[in-house]
Amino acid sequence: MNNKSSLLIRDIGEQGLLKKLQPFCIPGMVGDDAAVLETDPHRSLVITTDVLVDGVHFSDRTTTPADVGWRAVAANLSDLAAMGASPLGITVGLSIPGNLTVSWVESLYQGMSACLQQYQTGIVGGDICRSEGISIAITAFGQVFPTQIIKRSSAQPGDAIVATGCHGASRAGLELLLHPEIGQQLSDREKSYLIQTHQRPKPRLDVLPIIWEIFNSDSAIRIAGMDSSDGLADAIAQICHASSVGAKIDRNLIPIPPTLPKLTSAEQALNWALYGGEDFELVLCLPLEKAQPLVERLGNYAAIIGTITKDLEILLVDPTQVDHQQVLLLSKGFQHF
Amino acid sequence: MNNKSSLLIRDIGEQGLLKKLQPFCIPGMVGDDAAVLETDPHRSLVITTDVLVDGVHFSDRTTTPADVGWRAVAANLSDLAAMGASPLGITVGLSIPGNLTVSWVESLYQGMSACLQQYQTGIVGGDICRSEGISIAITAFGQVFPTQIIKRSSAQPGDAIVATGCHGASRAGLELLLHPEIGQQLSDREKSYLIQTHQRPKPRLDVLPIIWEIFNSDSAIRIAGMDSSDGLADAIAQICHASSVGAKIDRNLIPIPPTLPKLTSAEQALNWALYGGEDFELVLCLPLEKAQPLVERLGNYAAIIGTITKDLEILLVDPTQVDHQQVLLLSKGFQHF
Which of this chain's residues are annotated to bind substrate (chains A, B) (predicted)? Predict the structure, then answer.
C-alpha cells in the first residue's frame, strides 16, 4: 500500500475530507447550511442533511430517545431557518441494531414528530436498515423566495451582527446533566430552563416573518447569516470567511443567560457562549437601520453584538478596558474524527 | 421493564417497525418509492431516501467502494424513475469510522459521481460523521408533472404487466463473484455482462421519455409501477397490494438472461429472476394498447409478462402445461433484521 491510499480519515480530519469531496459535488451548491435548487421561477427548494451517531452526538446519559429525535429535527430546521427557508418536510434514514427495543425507536419518532408539529411540517419518507450502532440521517426540505435567501457570503463592512438569543445555555444544560452538583445555587426553574434548552432546542424559524416585515419595502433582502449550532464563534468565523470580511465583537454585548455566573466563572461562561455550540440561534449580518428594529421586535435576549469590518481579523473586544482585545480562537469548536 | 418496552426490532421485523412508525409520518406521503411534495402548481417535487450499511448491503469481497457508490446512487435514481420523476440532485449522509482510508471514501464518491453524471445530475449537499461502521444515507430529489406521476396504486384489471428488461442477471453476477467456478461454461464477455449488471446497475430513467411519447395525446398518464430492486415478485406483489388487484404472470414470458441456463438449473434461474432483486428494472401496469408500443420501443428484453386481474391472487402460470399454476411466494425477498 502506498502512502496516499493508507491515509486515514483521522489523519486529515473532517474539514480535510470535505475539501477532498467537494470536487465531486455540483460547484456552488455546497458550502452553505443547505443546498438551494431551482424548481420554478418563483420559489427555490432548500435541502439540508445531518447525520447523528450514538456515542458521538448523543448518549443515554444525557438524552432520552425522544430528545434525540427532537434535537435531530431541530438541527435540520435550524439549517433551513439559517437559509431563510420555510420547511416542507423531512426524510429519515435510520441505521439501528437488531437488538434495540421498539420503544426506543418509537420514542425517537415521537420526539421528531413533536418538534415537526411545532413548525407545521412532518416526515415525508425514509429508510431503515440494520447496523452495529445507531445512526440517524435526516434530510430536510424547505422553500424560499430567491430574493429572500440568507447566505453566509453577503456580509458587508459596516453591517451590524445580530445574535437572535442567548448563547451558552445549551452547554450549561449539558454540564448540569453531567454534573448536577454544580447547580446548587440555581432554583429548579432555572435548572430546568437550561436543561430544556439543551434537550429541546428551538430552531428560530419564527425570526423569518419578522425579517420579511422589516425588509418589506425592499425589492430584495440583503442579509448574511447562519445558525450557531457549532458555536457562536464558529458562526461569526464562517460568515466572515465566506464574505471575505472581518468582525469586531463586543464581549459585553454577547447575550449570556443571567444564571450562568451562578454556575461557573465569568470567563468560562463566555467560553460556553462562544464555543459551547448547539444554541441553534441565528447569527445575522445586516445594515444597522434594519438590525435595530429586528432586535427590538425579537425581544428577549436578541442583541447587536458587533460590527462587520473590512479588516479580515475577528476581534473580541472589551471597550470598558483599555487595550483589551483578543483575536477569536476558532479551534475550540466541535470537530469529528 | 414491561413486555412492550422490551420488544426488540428483530421481534417485529422491518415491516412491523415501518407500520409502527407510519402514524408519525404525514398521511398519504409514505408508501410509494418516494415522497411527492407540491412546490408549485406546475411541478411536483419527488424525494427518496436509502440507507446502505457495510456488511448488510455490500462487502469488500464483491464490491469495490466505487461500485458501492454507483449502486447507492443507482438505487435512489431508480426510485425516482419508478415515480416517473427526473432527477434534480442527491444529498449524502455518511457515517464512517476514523480508521477508514481517505481513498476508500474518495472511491465511493467517484462511483457516485460517475453514476450521477450518466444522468446529468449531482450531489447537492451532505454530512459526514464518525461511527463504528460504515453507513451511507442518500436522499435523491426529482421533479415530475403531476399528470405524469407513476404510483403503485393505480393498476386496473386488464392492464398488461411490463418488465422493462432482464431479471436474474444481478443475482447471477453476485453468484459469479462469490463462486467463480460456476461460470466455467460462460465466455469472459458473458461473465463480465452479468457481473457488470450486479456492480453497475442502470436505473431506467431512459424509459420515461418513451412513456411520455406514447401517452402524448392523453391528458394524463394512467400507469402503475415501481422498480424491481427488491425482486420482480416483490414489485408485482406491492403493486397488487396497493391497487387491490391480483395478477397472472406467465413464467415463460419473464425475461431471463439467455446465459443463465449455463450457470444453473431452469428452476433456480427463475427463482433468481423472481426473488434475486437488484435488477433495478421497472415493473409497469398499463393498458395493453400502450404496453405493446412501449415494449417495442424499449427493445432488448422488455416484455409483457402477464395481466392484472380482479381476483386478488397472484398466480405464476405455465400455459404450456395443463394445471400448472402456483401462487407466487413473496417471503423470499430480502428482509432486514
Answer: 57, 278, 334
